[in-house]
User: Which sequence fits this backbone?
C-alpha cells in the first residue's frame, strides 16, 4: 500500500485534532500534491522521485498510528511520518539517504520573490550520528548547492548556510536542549529583491525562540534554481541497523 504526503500553498494541516489515522497523508493534507513531489525508495530500496497521490503510503512515509506497530506517541496521531534507514542508497551527488518533500516550484536569486515555508516537526528517532536535516533550501546544481539546511544535531538546532554555491558551510547554533519527541516549530522566509536575498529564520521548541537573519548576494547563486524541502534527510551512511524517524504535524508553503 502506498502512502500520501501533504503540502501546498495552504496549511499542511489545520489542527492536530482534525487528522484521521485511517487516512493516507494525502487524505489528511489534500493540498500537498499540488506543490510537492516525494523523494523516497522504490520496491528495491533504490531512490525514486514520485508524484504525491491519494494512494501513496508505504514503509517510508505514512500516517502516524495508522496501524499499532507504526504509532509514535510523541507525535500527534495522523501526522506524516518520514522513516529513513541508515546506509540506504543516496540520490545523485549525495552520500546520505532521504525521504523528503521537494517543492515543484523553483526560484532564482536576482529575481523578486517572497516565499515562506513553516512547519511543526518532531525528531522521533535518531541515527548513530545523531544528525538529521528536517528542512532545506536546495539547488539543482551539483557540488554544494544547499543554500540552507536546518538540522537537529544531538539535541541542538543548527542552521547551515553557504554564502555562494559550492562554498564551505557556515553553521549557526539556534537552540540547544531539544529532546527527541519535542515539537520544533519553524518558519523560513526568503525574500529576493534583485541584488540579494534576505533569509529570516525563526525556530522555537520548549518555550524557547531563536531568530536569525542571513543575507545572500545574488551573484553567488544567480545561475542555480533553488527549491524548498521538508522531511527527513538521515545524516548516516552506515548500514548499522539504525533508523532516522521524523514526523510533521503541520507544513505550509506560500509564494507571493
Assistant:
Amino acid at each position: 500500500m502506498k502512502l500520501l504526503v501533504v503540502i501546498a500553498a495552504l496549511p499542511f494541516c489545520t489542527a492536530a485534532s482534525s487528522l484521521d489515522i485511517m487516512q493516507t497523508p494525502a487524505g489528511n493534507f489534500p493540498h500537498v500534491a499540488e506543490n510537492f513531489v516525494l523523494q523516497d525508495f522504490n520496491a528495491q530500496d533504490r531512490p525514486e522521485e514520485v508524484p504525491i497521490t491519494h494512494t501513496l503510503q508505504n514503509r517510508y512515509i505514512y500516517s502516524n498510528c495508522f496501524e499499532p506497530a507504526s504509532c509514535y506517541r510523541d507525535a500527534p496521531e495522523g501526522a506524516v511520518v518520514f522513516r529513513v534507514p541508515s546506509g540506504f542508497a543516496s540520490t545523485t551527488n549525495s552520500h546520505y539517504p532521504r525521504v523528503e518533500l521537494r517543492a515543484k516550484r523553483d526560484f532564482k536569486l536576482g529575481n523578486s520573490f517572497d516565499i515562506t515555508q513553516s512547519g511543526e516537526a518532531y525528531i522521533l528517532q535518531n541515527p548513530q550520528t545523531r544528525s538529521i536535516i528536517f528542512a532545506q533550501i536546495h539547488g539543482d546544481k551539483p557540488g554544494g548547492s544547499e543554500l540552507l539546511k536546518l538540522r537537529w544535531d544531538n539535541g541542538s538546532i543548527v542552521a547551515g548556510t553557504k554564502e555562494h554555491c559550492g562554498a564551505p558551510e557556515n553553521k549557526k547554533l539556534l537552540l540547544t536542549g531539544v529532546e527527541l519527541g519535542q515539537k520544533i516549530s519553524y518558519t523560513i522566509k526568503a525574500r529576493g529583491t534583485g541584488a540579494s536575498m534576505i533569509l529570516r529564520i525563526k525556530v522555537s521548541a520548549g518555550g524557547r525562540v531563536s531568530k536569525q537573519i542571513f543575507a545572500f548576494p545574488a551573484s553567488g547563486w544567480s545561475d542555480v534554481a533553488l527549491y524548498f524541502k521538508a522531511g527527513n534527510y538521515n545524516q548516516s551512511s552506515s548500514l548499522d541497523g539504525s533508523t532516522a524517524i521524523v514526523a510533521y504535524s503541520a507544513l505550509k508553503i506560500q509564494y507571493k
About this structure: The longest helix spans residues 25-28. The CA atoms of residues 7 and 32 lie 3 Å apart. Confidence is low (pLDDT under 50) at residues 1-17. The chain is about 0% helix and 50% strand.
